[in-house]
Amino acid sequence: MNEWLRQLINQIKNLWGKWSLTQKIILFSIVGVAVLAIILIAVFSSAPTMVTLIGTPISDENNLARIVTVLDEEGVTYKVSPENMIYVEDDATARRIRAILIREDLIPPRTDPWAIFDVERWTLTDFERDVNLQRAITKNLEQHILALDDVDATSVTLVVPKAELFQEDQNPVTASVIITPKPGSDIKENRKKIEGIVKIIKFAVAGLQDENIVITDQNGLQLNDFTGLEDVDRIEVARRELRTKKELEQQYKAEILAALRTIFSFDRVEIVKLDIDLDMSKQTVNTEEHFPVTMTKDNPRTPFDETEVVPSITLSKEVTEEHFEGTGFNPEGPPGQEGQTPPAYKDLSNLVGKYDQSTLIQNEVVNKKSTYEEKSPWSIDRITAGVAIDGVWRRVYNEEGQVEVNPDGSIKREYTPVSDEDLRKAESLIKDAVGYNRDRGDSVTVEHIPFDRSAQFATEDEELRRQRQVRTTIVSIIIGIGAIIFAAILYRLIAKELERRRRLREEELARQHQAMREAALRRAEEEGAEVELSVEERARMEMQENAINMAREHPEDVAQLIRTWLLEE
Questions:
Q1: How far is CA 371 from the centre of its chain?
Q2: Each residue of 511-537: pLDDT tens digit?
Q3: Rg of the chain's alpha carbons, rounded to an integer?
Q4: Quick one: which of 54, 174, 374, 501 has the most CB atoms within 10 Å?
Q5: Bridge-partner residues for 316, per DSSP?
Q6: 292: helix, strand or coil
Q7: What is the pTM of this model?
Q8: β-strand 443-448 against 379-389: which pairing, if any?
Q9: 3-class SS at 150?
Q10: Euclidean distance between CA atoms 94 and 147, whole angstroms
Q11: Which own/partner pairs from 353-358 qualify as long-range (CB within 8 Å, at least 24 positions apart)?
């Protein structure tokens, strides 16, 4: 074994020595990445998982959607499982969101938040379980209240009396809560927040009623005493009614303006006034409907209707008949004495009469349906609307298609009023849009009124003057620039022509001088006389000879040089 290990180490050393520096760096990089991956896996594996917000699945899709909306508004990271279980990131977040859900009445029914107490422990008695349950409820209540943003500290005390045999002997469950508001919080003045805390406590403790809950601040001032606030509630209700009325009027205005402005254009329609009288009284209607009894239903397989309907069915029937015929009984006094019968009745004592009486009592039963209906929180009593529609202003154009201008420089315009037919059609549209009801006293008025467009026309006239001024300035600048360009081109042509003529004259003089020198040289050669040349003439002759030789040896380069000179000139 040692020999094999020694050989393995030697092989690794030899292989390591053969590797280049790049291969060694790659190996260390791979090892480092692997170690980092193992560390990250261990860290993320040991991280706490998400906790459940509510211990049971939420079967109601609407309730689930409302809870998810609250989570989105609070900016909480959450996850919804396929079984409709909601998970949040930690216990603190779960407690805070549960408090909000309880305050907003979003906790699903039949939710069991105390599933942990279903675990049986052999070492605990029933009394200890009750004490632990009460302590757990108290602690959980404190955590719920502390999760609120307005509470800095809290103390909760619950009194759960022992269950008695008779209800009249049973003492109520009571709760006392002391909260310390955070600095700058309005929880003392905000009734809705206090009511939310009351709901948290009430729903957390079974059998606890609102009158048995006392909430005070750190100074002992009771916060959930709402007696004497009826006027405040009435003012708040009136404020809500006014807000509902305003929102409804804004909705009607938006719909009317959207329709009419699409037809007549945006700036030609204005709603002068739209007022809606609302009845905010709460109404309930209990309707009882009676309808005939169907004895035989229609057979859908036959082409005719064999439905048999009777108005009612006899449930019970009682018939009584009474008949009498003869003289009536006329009482007399004791034997031997005259009776005390009045004379008027004595005259009728020997008459024979007949009496018949029939009585029929019959109980009939019919189909009956009772409907309990609660009407909407408000209804419209009356709608009044006044709408003003402006005519059309059009610009006047001449035969050339240009806008005509008045002597003062303003645009010439013509006004076309709205026809009566269009006004009637607009009034019909508005009536249909608001649900016009003449019996309700609704009133809709549509009138043609010219709008004051002085400011608009002044702006348009000023814009036209500015455009004309800009156009005149641009034309003048273009003419000036054209004149300058033309003068520059003419000057360039004249200068080039003068330069060409000067160059031709100089070339002609140089050619004449050269011819004279060559003639003089020829004459001197012919005469055999030695002519002494100046330094300039020798340099010129050498340059000329070099140019001739270069032209013979490199004709293409010389031709390109001549082209360049011509292009530069």
A1: 37
A2: 787 778 777 777 776 765 444 556 666
A3: 57
A4: 54
A5: 363
A6: coil
A7: 0.37
A8: parallel
A9: coil
A10: 9
A11: 353/324, 353/325, 353/326, 353/327, 353/328, 354/324, 354/325, 355/322, 355/323, 355/324, 355/325, 356/321, 356/322, 356/323, 356/324, 357/320, 357/321, 357/322, 357/323, 358/319, 358/320, 358/321, 358/322
